TrEMBL record:
PROSITE patterns: PROKAR_LIPOPROTEIN, SOLCAR. This is Succinate/fumarate mitochondrial transporter. It comes from Seminavis robusta. It is found in: Mitochondrion membrane. Gene3D superfamilies: Mitochondrial carrier domain.
Length: 382
C-alpha cells in the first residue's frame, strides 16, 4: 500500500499480518450487524404482487359466491369472522368501474399474501424484536476466524503481486509502456482472487448459514436447539451432511466479487492517496484522510458487482439434498432465474446495507492498517 517501491521493500510480510489483522478485527466488530441485515434482505423472496392477487381473485369461479356471502353479512361483522391468515376481499365502485381490493387479516404469510418490503431499518427492527439485539452479530465468530488470515493474505499478496509485476515490467523492457495504475489494478485483482479461494468462500458459507437462522437469541431453548452454533461446528455439520465441497459453494461469484472489489479498492485508494500527498507535499496521510479515502474507494466496487453478491448468498444458503436438483447451479443460471422470478432489481437486493457495511468498513480498514503499520515501523518492530 506504500506509494513507492522503496517503501514497499521496508515492509516485512509479518507486518501485514499484524496490521491487517488489527484492521480486520476493528472493522468486523463495528460493521457486522450491517452484514447480517444485508444477508437477510438478500435471502428474502419477493412476495406476490397486488396485481396478481387481484387478477386471481377476479377470475376465480368462487367470486360470485364470495360476493353473495359478503352481501348477506352486516358491514360491521363482515370480516370479523375471517380466519387468521386468510385474505378478505372488498369491492368499491368508481366512475371507471369496479375495483377489487385484497387485504390480509393477519396470521402467517402465504403464497398469496401481499407483504410490504422491509428496508434496512425495518429489517434490523424485526430481527431485534423477534430474535434479540445479539442476533445482529450472528456469524461473527466465522468472521473473526477468517478475518486475520484474510487481511494478511490481502495485503501480503497485493504487495507481492505488485512487486512481481514491477520486476517483470523492468525485465521485459516495458518501463514507460505499462502504467503503475494498471499494475496496481492487476495486483488488486489477483489479491482478491487469492483471498476468495483461500479464506473468504468457506468462511462466508459458515457465516451465512449462521446468519440465516431465525432463532431468538433471547430464548435459551431456541439457542440450545439451533443447528449451527459456532464456526467450527458449522463447518463440521456442513462437511458431514453435504461434503467438504459444500464449503466452496459460490466460489466463482465470490472470486469475481472479491477480485473486482480489491482491484477497484486498491486502485482508487492509491490513486487518491498519491494525489493528496503530492498536493500536500507530504509522504504520509493523516488518519482522517485515510478514513475518507478508504471509504470512498470502498464504495466503488459493490455498486457494480452486487448481483454477484446476491447470487453468492443464495448459492451458499441452499442445502443440497441427495437426489434433488439444486435450485441455483451456476452464476449465469442463478442471475437469470432470480431476474425471472423476482425481477431484475432483485439482483441489487441488499445494496443499501451492503454499502453501509462496506464503505465504513473499508474506511476503518485502511485507517487502522495505515495507523498500525506506521507505528510498527516507527517503533522499530519491523
Amino acid at each position: 500500500m506504500s506509494s513507492t517501491k522503496e517503501q514497499n521493500k521496508k515492509k516485512n510480510p509479518l507486518m501485514h499480518l499484524v496490521a491487517g489483522g488489527c484492521a480486520g478485527l476493528v472493522e468486523s466488530s463495528c460493521c457486522h450487524p450491517l452484514d447480517t441485515i444485508k444477508t437477510r434482505m438478500q435471502l428474502r423472496r419477493q412476495a406476490t404482487s397486488v396485481e396478481k392477487v387481484v387478477v386471481k381473485m377476479r377470475d376465480s369461479l368462487m367470486e360470485p359466491a364470495l360476493r353473495l356471502k359478503h352481501s348477506l353479512q352486516e358491514p360491521a361483522g363482515r370480516f370479523a369472522a375471517a380466519e387468521p391468515g386468510m385474505a378478505r376481499m372488498s369491492t368499491t365502485t368508481t366512475a371507471g368501474g369496479r375495483v377489487t381490493q385484497v387485504v390480509r387479516t393477519g396470521g402467517p404469510s402465504t403464497a398469496g399474501t401481499t407483504v410490504a418490503p422491509l428496508g434496512p431499518v425495518g429489517t434490523a427492527k424485526r430481527i431485534i424484536q423477534r430474535e434479540g439485539f445479539l442476533a445482529l452479530y450472528k456469524g461473527l465468530t466465522a468472521v473473526y476466524t477468517g478475518i486475520v488470515p484474510k487481511m494478511a493474505i490481502r495485503f501480503v499478496s497485493f504487495e507481492q503481486y505488485k512487486e512481481i509485476l514491477h520486476t517483470g515490467k523492468e525485465r521485459a523492457g516495458l518501463d514507460g509502456k505499462i502504467s503503475p495504475t494498471l499494475i496496481t489494478f492487476t495486483a488488486g485483482l489477483m489479491s482478491g482472487l487469492t483471498e476468495a479461494i483461500m479464506v473468504v468462500t468457506p468462511a462466508e458459507v459458515c457465516k451465512i448459514r449462521m446468519q440465516s437462522q431465525h432463532h431468538s437469541m433471547m430464548d435459551p431453548v431456541q439457542k440450545q436447539h439451533r443447528k449451527y452454533t459456532n464456526v467450527v461446528q458449522t463447518a463440521m455439520v456442513i462437511t458431514r451432511e453435504e461434503g467438504i465441497g459444500a464449503l466452496y459453494k459460490g466460489v466463482v461469484p465470490t472470486m469475481l466479487r472479491q477480485g473486482c472489489n480489491q482491484a477497484v479498492n486498491f486502485t482508487g485508494y492509491n490513486l487518491i492517496k498519491k494525489k493528496v500527498m503530492d498536493y500536500q507535499g507530504t509522504t504520509e496521510l493523516a488518519s482522517w484522510q485515510s478514513l475518507l479515502i478508504g471509504g470512498f474507494s470502498g464504495g466503488m466496487g459493490p455498486t457494480v458487482n452486487n448481483p454477484l453478491d446476491v447470487v453468492k448468498t443464495r448459492m451458499q444458503k441452499q442445502v443440497i439434498t441427495p437426489g434433488k436438483p439444486a435450485k441455483y447451479t451456476g452464476l449465469g443460471q442463478a442471475c437469470a432465474l432470480i431476474a425471472k422470478e423476482e425481477g431484475v432489481l432483485a439482483l441489487w437486493k441488499g445494496i443499501t446495507p451492503r454499502l453501509l457495511r462496506i464503505v465504513p468498513g473499508q474506511a476503518i480498514t485502511f485507517m487502522t492498517y495505515e495507523f498500525v503499520s506506521a507505528n510498527l515501523i516507527k517503533f522499530g518492530v519491523f
